[in-house]
Amino acid sequence: MDLRRLNCFLAVAEELNFSRAAQRLHMSQPPLSQQIRLLEREMGVQLFERSRRAVALTPAGLLLQDKARQIVALHRQAGELCRMAASGLAGRLRIAFTASVPLFADFSRLLGEFRQRYPQVELDLQHMTTGEQIAALAAGQIDLGFMRPSPAFRIPLPIRERTLWRDELMLALPAAHEQARSGAPLALQAMAEQAFVLHPAVLGGGLHEHILALCSEAGFVPRIAQPARETATMLALVAAGLGVSVVPSVYASICPPGVVLRPLADAARHSRIAMVCRQDESLPCVQMFWQQLCAARAA
Question: What mean pLDDT value characterizes the chain?
């Protein structure tokens, strides 16, 4: 169905006068009449009752009028959305984040501010480990990542990176542990003979690599008694006495009873959350999200 003919039809249907409709469309009357005849031929029905004195819609014309208005409006909206997508004001933004990221209050606030400012941009949020995010960025499956890079972790593709938050790595001990009552920072080396509860290596997480590097610097390889995918699960297993662990201090807000967090005395005990995207990323809404977040952090 020709959109131009529908616009001609709507002008005549609303004016009920070919001359006024032609003036409204900035065209002469004969081509307008021809467009209406072609539309009637295409539809196989008469759309207007014509006489020397008046023009009126037929029952078929009345039905088409409602549908034609919807079609023209949808076409206009589609055009507007395409233009908004080209400028970054509409589209879909795929964001991945590690489990600890939502614990930072700024994260939800920044997402909310972006959604209010750009309501036509759909936010597709996914939970992924740091390793999973790197693989997803390389495969083009996500646009932005909020990850916890490790000093020992190498990212195998060119990325753009911005550090957002830093927190402290802390020892997580069962409350019954002999050193749990000490308020002083504890050396990681003192845990060399302890069983550890850590993320499995297959997840490729930045935190896992960071902890292994810290243990190596302390002169031992941790004996992993129980792997756990989620840090919240790790803490629950520590509370059950299955071992000790090392977790970011942001988890203190959801630490279960039976777990005591103690600061580490060793060097390089800090971790960070970084926002990353591909170095060659050109999606407009990614650039807008990046700029808004950086401006908010600067403020």
Answer: 86
